[in-house]
Protein: LysR family transcriptional regulator
Amino acid sequence: MELRQLRCLVAIVDEGTFTDAALALGVSQAAVSRTLASLERALGVRLLRRTSRAVTPTANGIRVVAHARRVLAEADELVREATSGQRVLRVGYAWSALGRHTPSFQRRWAAAHPGTELQMVRVNTATAGLAEGSCDLAVLRRPLEDRRFDSAIVGLERRLCVMAADDPLARRRSVRLADLTGHTLLIDRRTGTTTPDLWPPDSRPATEETYDVDDWLTAISTGRRIGMSAEATASQYRRPGVVYRPVRDAEPVAVRLAWWRDDPHPAAPTVIELLTALYRGV
Structure:
């Protein structure tokens, strides 16, 4: 089955006769007849009923024509996308997008590129949806070991400790890594920025795993667990009963933009420039 066969079928139904369909398609009437016959052979059903005055779809033909219209519409849309440039840019992220820079990024992009819609997509995987095809570019906060992808650092974020508002540490303006040793730390090994390696081997806190930011915050709010995350999380997820405190002696978190190495997205340089400017306060 080929697209030209479906176009022929739809043209016959829309025009009402083989002769008019041939005129609409710019081919001979004999070519229309042959194309329809080949489609009916491919499907194994009769699609049209011909009389001396009209051509009408059979019951099978009605169903096939409805599907054919949808298939042809999708094919036409594919051609438009391929020939008119990107009209939608999907930027994936795992837990937090760009924190306080997210609204500015969206507004600046809309002003500079009104013909390309920006969509922020949350996908909690190691590549924030890039490997899964859910996005075109991805914001990541950990190095990518997968050689299929390339990335560039666009900014740095402070590392914050996340705790219940009634935790004794919450009275402080900041904390140190050593202050967290006796706590149980909730981490996401797939996408998170925190691992026990931040601490010396003899003073690492106990850890438990989580895979969702809402579950993470809910557990922390009970006071039985703490968390650590990049500062974007504090901007993205404010919640009553949970506070964020800077960790003075922890290295900052590098924010990266990633893309497919063998098929770099044409918007990547523009997005890198915009995000770098935002993180620099330009």
Observations:
- The CA atoms of residues 81 and 194 lie 40 Å apart.
- The chain has eight helices and twelve strands.
